Amino acid sequence: MNTSDSLFNKIATAVIDGDSALVESLVQEALRGHSDPLKIIDQGLTRGVREVGDKFGRGESFLTDLVMAATAMQQGLKLVEPEILRQGKTAKTLGTVVLGTVAGDVHDIGKNIVGAMLRASGFSVDDLGVDVPTHGFVNAIRKREPEIIGLSALMTVTMPEQAKIINELEKQKLRDKVAVIIGGAATSEEWAEEIKADAYAPDAVQGLRKTNELLRRRGKRHD
Amino acid sequence: MIDWHKALLLEPFSKSELYSICSSAIEVLETVGVRIQDQETLQLLRDAGARVDPDEKITKMPEYLVKEALMREPRQVNMAGRDGTHTLKLGSGKTYFANQDASFMEDRNTRQWRASTKNDVEKFAKLNDALKNVGLIVRPAARDISSEIMDLHEFEAVVHNTTKPFHLGPYRGADSIADFVKMASIVRGDEKALLDGPLFSVAACCTSPLSWDAWSLSVLKECAKHKSPVYVAGQPTLGGTGPVTLAGSLVVATAEVLSGIVIAQLINRGAPVMYWDGAYPLDQRTGVSATGSAEHALINFVTPQVCRFLGIPSCVIALTDAYTFDAQAGYEKAFSFMSAILGRADIVWGIGGMGPCVSYTQAVIDDEIVEMGLRVARGIEVSEESLAVDVIKSVGPGKTFLGHKHTKEHHRKELVLPEVSNRFPRQLWESQGRAEIGSTALKRANELIETHHVDPVEKDVASQLRDFISRREKELLK
């Protein structure tokens, strides 16, 4: 094992431990040593987070481990990304997902867990936060060109916002460009059908499964 | 009947522990503050002496603001049904029971979960009007009605099917409250009469941790304006939107409720606010709020104690994480109702509730769990009559008490006779088709919905209500 391999291992372990500060200093060390930034991601950061994700799937680690690992990975990515850009490379991801809680609703714990799960599985996630107005989603779709958007609404009173966003996407001729997943305590499979969302995810694990399914379906359509 | 002055009461916290919880909550309000997503409320708090950061919308409330608010907050909040026979005195030392907010319903025919409808609101109100331990009817959402007028239809559906006070969903914020007050005033005669016996309540939820959205604030403020009873919910999930420790989450929930009380009392001195605690553990494997957990049962024990210390009426919730009428539903419900009763909450929500759903069947089962819980709380009377030494003497060894008049006189008072729990001998139970609690309770629910009589709303009141709703519909659906 050469030194950069063992450094990647250390990064992966620090991600698994959810130690953001250690991840930062190890990534900086790797960049100073001219390690390939794509390898820092692939063999260090995402490897670590994927391992936590797998453990979570087996019931051996917990949500708090997953969220901390995803946060640590994010910290590392922030340092690596400028270097990737400088070298004219692109990082490999399974796809891009834009997430947000709809206007009038400030609940975000479920959405954050979905975000962590998706990141742990290798998706690039753009989390718009809470109380996101319709145009916030529209702008993000134009800018980031995600394959998927995820709309969260916890309350009965904010559910109609999900329908409003989908209507707006129709109007702006963006609806075919992006698959819509909805979730949140008040929502349901029937509601997803009613507002013509592409999928409904009752929890984070289903959110990840539906994301993968929708991507496969879209992939086929493009072939 | 239970004599609440003699009933069992468990208070787990020592005085100094209580003091620590409350002073920590005040410290959090003073040093961390709450986020307020509403300019008008920020200004109100600033004028009252709070430190406001307008960019972050964070308001830090000094201790004296909280103490002043607690001086103004009524210790007791009263409600009354439309004919005045069913009353609630929250804060009087007696425990009342209510249903659960929900937008999903167990279908009585298919027994599947589905979106609740206006028909459910009517039937559920009627069923709970019949259930003897339910004091406050909480309606499920009428999701087959368009969202602009859902609140008006829910009011209509409930008021015709119960003479108990009820709880509504203010989907249009302050505008809903204003309309509810008008409708309730029609029922009561005028708004002054409504003030003497509020007919409805609503909830305004602080989003944990420590954040108020504009919609919830508009509900809270409009309620305060009309002195209409409002539950302020502090509901951190343990380890999610609050500290994972029970004491830490109690601090967050208490700070959140106190912030609501400060706002309400600044709007209108004496506005009736209840402390609604919905702190649940976040299950680290699934992300689900574990409503039926042992930890939530503990919350049900201690929240009433914290509230008595602060002088605020308390509301806790008894739910289950099961989605069917199985052993888990039974033990979780029993744990959480029992702890709320022994902790002496002013009102315990949850009758009929299963997670985010509500069920006719579970409502009947819960009414029975409560009946048994109240029996436990009633305790054991020790008197000459109950010690029954003379009776024991007169019966003597080896004989039966079955034929003694002491048994005949006392058994109905001393022993609860459950209505749906199985008490048949095994052979009879088997020959009658091995009925399980789910089917027995559903049968009872159907019977009650079919046969229970609710006195109708007086004709001219009913027509005034209908006129009001029709007019508002035209305006709102324009």
Question: What would your notes on this structure say?
Answer:
The complex is a heterodimer of chains A (223) and B (478). With 223 residues, chain A is of the alpha/beta class. Chain A contains nine helices and five strands. Chain A has helices at residues 3-16, 20-32, 37-57, 63-86, 109-120, 134-144, 159-171, 189-194, 204-222, and strands spanning 96-101, 124-127, 148-152, 179-183, 199-200. Chain A is globular, with a radius of gyration of 18 Å. The mean pLDDT of chain A is 89. Chain B is of the alpha/beta class and 478 residues long. Chain B contains 18 helices and 20 strands. Chain B has helices at 15-31, 39-48, 63-72, 118-130, 150-159, 174-188, 191-196, 214-226, 246-267, 294-310, 327-342, 360-378, 384-387, 389-395, 405-414, 426-431, 437-451, 459-476, and strands at 34-36, 51-53, 58-60, 77-80, 87-90, 96-99, 104-106, 113-115, 137-138, 166-167, 200-205, 211-212, 230-234, 237-238, 273-277, 280-281, 314-317, 347-351, 353-354, 357-358. In chain B, the strands form five sheets. An eight-stranded parallel sheet of chain B has the order 6-18-17-15-13-11-10-9. A four-stranded mixed sheet of chain B has the order 2-3-1-12. In chain B, strand 2 and strand 3 (58-60) form a beta hairpin. In chain B, helix 4 (118-130) packs parallel to helix 5 (150-159) and helix 8 packs across helix 9. At the A-B interface, helix 5 of A face loops of B.
What's this, in brief?
The complex is a heterodimer of chains A (223) and B (478). By secondary structure, chain A is of the alpha/beta class.
The outline of chain B comes out as: globular
Instruction: Provide the residue-averaged pLDDT of chain A.
Output: 89
Helix content, binned percent of chain B: 40-55%
Which segments of chain B are poorly predicted (pLDDT under 50) over 5 or more consecutive residues?
none
Estimate the helix proportion of chain A, in percent. 55-70%
With strands numbered from the N-terminus, the spatial order across the biggest sheet of chain A is: 2-1-3-4-5
Distance between the ends of chain B: 52 Å
Strand content of chain A: 5-15%
User: Radius of gyration of chain A, Cα only, in angstroms?
Assistant: 18 Å
* Cα-to-Cα separation, first versus last residue of chain A: 41 Å
Helical stretch tally of chain B: 18
Extract low-pLDDT stretches of chain A. none
The ordered string of helix (H) and strand (E) elements of chain A is: HHHHEHEHEHEHEH
The proportion of residues in beta strands of chain B is 5-15%
**What class would the helix/strand composition of chain B place it in?**
alpha/beta
Q: Tell me the structural class of chain A.
A: alpha/beta
Specify the number of helices of chain A. Answer: 9
Instruction: Tell me how many strands of chain B there are.
Output: 20
